[in-house]
Amino acid sequence: MQSRADQSHPLFGGALSAVLPHSAKDTSELREIPDNQEVFVHEHTDQSLIVELVEYQSQVENEDAARYHFEDIAGSNKALEPDAFEVTSSFPDSSSAASAETHRQPWTVQDFQRLLQTLTLHNPGLFG
Q: I want to staple 19 with a disulfide (CB 3.0 to 4.6 A). Which of 11, 49, 56, 118 is the partner?
């Protein structure tokens, strides 16, 4: 029998699914979320996780796609001038998740990697 932590969660009406990090709360239960996003928040920290469907850009090399879309969103929101920022991340040590208070612990990079590794497309023809 699978534990809740191992269960795949449907995304975008079941078109995709993935195993979410512990303590992930679906933000759509709290407020309206755009149709191209799935947003989750950690129930005990200020962390959030956004899964967003973006349009394929044939002029952008695959290795540049994440930066392209990040800069596009930042520019659309008038956040910063293009190329005027550095994308960095900080995750706590994964060994902290072994404590008795696991679900109160922040998400780690391993939690995000697990989501990505379990992301499954159930209907390949859906997106064209």
A: 118
